[in-house]
Amino acid sequence: MKYLFYFLILNLLLSCYQVERNCDKFKTGTFEFKTQIQGEIKTTTFYRNDSIEIERYEGNTDTATIRWINDCEYVLKSISPESIKEKKQIHFKILSTDNNTYTFEYNIVNSDKKQKGTAYKVSDSIQFKR
Description:
Oligomer: single chain
Order of helices and strands: HEEEEEHEEE
Distance between the termini: 66 Å
Shape: globular
Structural class: mainly beta
Strand content: over 45%
């Protein structure tokens, strides 16, 4: 009975915790996303305003339109897809925010396979470098 009481108290405390989601802060600006590919850290830089996202990765530049579903979810659609894979739209959902970072999950629209990542806001302005 004592353990049940502790379990209920712990459950109550955990259910009161709310994750910060200040998504408006991350709708525009310059961002970086780092991921490990085959043991090497790779960095993607992207520049976003309310309707366009420009992504730079290893010297390549891609541009996509942004359709905001709500304050914390959006869909990217490539403007000039060069393959069937690039024609697929990608759904992003901001899960939590903290200072200049946000954690997100993403997946190809109509796919159940979701991945997670963390993006870092580098600047409030869009600093696109050629």
